[in-house]
Design goal:
Elements (H helix, E strand, L loop, with lengths): L1 H61 L17 E6 L10 H6 L1 E14 L3 E7 L3 E5 L2 E4 L3 E5 L6 E2 L5 E6 L3 E13 L14 E7 L2
Antiparallel strand pairs: 1-2, 2-9, 3-8, 3-10, 4-5, 6-7, 6-9
């Protein structure tokens, strides 16, 4: 009887232990599952944070500007331009009135147009030593005179350049009008044709 009681009590004790262990295992399992769920939730939360961060930071990347700074320039040399109109000039035929007066005068006989991007000066000279020879009569250069149309005094032409006009400023299509004068006389010139070649030179003003 005692042995059976011990045996029955031992079985009851073992059964109770198994129940306690099972409950303990169930609690442990629930804890593990709970921890796993918490971990999964944390993991999901972290992933969402990362994705959200990327989503919010992406527009700033798309809005970034790209810039370039190329260089450019231009080189402008010294430039000057001169134009004479008309290209040549011939005095009208000499009359007895002209011989009486001793000269022929041509107002606004020529117009020189000047353009320059630097300070400039315009000179005039003869390319010939005289105006030609008829028989034994040589007409000298001193018989041809010139002046700016707004000046009052004439200047004798020579093979040396004489300043017509100058300016320390730039010129843009500046027009300079010239008057010509030819000296003639009854006993001064033999009948014939006389002439000379004029040279206009535009240069920088030093």
């Amino acid at each position: 009887m005692n042995w059976k009681w011990k045996f029955n009590n031992q079985n009851k004790f073992n059964a109770q232990n198994r129940k306690v262990k099972n409950r303990s295992n169930e609690v442990h399992t629930k804890k593990v599952q709970t921890v796993k769920k918490i971990k999964r939730q944390n993991t999901c939360f972290i992933i969402m944070v990362v994705i959200t961060s990327l989503f919010f930071f992406q527009p700033s990347i798309l809005q970034a500007d790209e810039t370039a700074s190329p260089s450019t320039g231009v080189s402008i040399p010294v430039l000057q331009s001169i134009h004479l109109s008309p290209g040549s000039f011939i005095f009208p035929d000499v009359s007895s009135t002209n011989l009486d007066k001793g000269f022929l005068e041509a107002r606004d006989a020529a117009t020189v147009t000047v353009s320059s991007n630097v300070a400039w000066q315009l000179t005039i000279q003869s390319e010939d030593p005289n105006m030609g020879k008829v028989k034994n009569n040589v007409k000298p250069l001193s018989d041809f005179l010139w002046k700016k149309s707004n000046d009052s005094h004439y200047t004798t032409i020579s093979t040396d350049g004489k300043v017509v006009d100058s300016n320390s400023e730039y010129a843009d299509q500046q027009k300079i009008k010239l008057d010509y004068k030819m000296l003639v006389g009854w006993t001064k010139d033999a009948p014939g044709t006389y002439g000379l070649n004029l040279r206009f030179r535009l240069s920088t003003l030093e």
